[in-house]
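<instruction>
Derive structure tokens from the sequence
<entry> Chain with its tokenised backbone below:
===
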Amino acid sequence: MATTPVGAKPRSPDRVAASLAGGFVVLLLATEVVLSLPDETASAVSVTTFYSANRPFIIILQILGFGASAMLGGYAWRLRRVDRVVSTLGMVMAVCSLLPGLVTLATAVVADPANPAAASRWNLLEPRADDVLFVGILVFAAAVTLRLGPGLPALGVLALLVAVGCLFRLGLEAAGVGRAPLDAIVPLSFLILIAVMAVLSLLGVLRP
């Protein structure tokens, strides 16, 4: 019969946390890959035409995205058993993740071919909403690096890469330099981080 070594903490798998994190990753991927939105450089007419033509679908996707944010927040809440700082900053990040969806939802609602300027104004806010989200990811990844990294070096390195990617992306944004590659790479690396943490929660490796 297997026994726990003296002085070692027994593993305590958190299947609820793993399900929340896994659900977040799957749902977010599903909502992101089915439709590409116009960027901030698109003309007012093209933005309005796109959003008015796809309004119901866009609204549904944003509601699903809010569900993904709720799962992320739930996972962050479960992490309070592991580390309260990581948990708190994770919940802050989950709140930040709502902002891009709210801006997209507002753009879809106000899109009117008779008044293209209204949707265009909201569309121009999308990069700022993304900036807030990347700041949220940055502080969460930094917390994982500093608080959980010493005990789980591989996780710490992965979280550090995510944090550095966020810093570079925000720096390029501030400098007005093209950031297209990082806009794809950083979110993907973040999803990988959450997926890895989901597995660690399922295995009971993430513990105080």
Summary: Residues 15-202 form one domain.
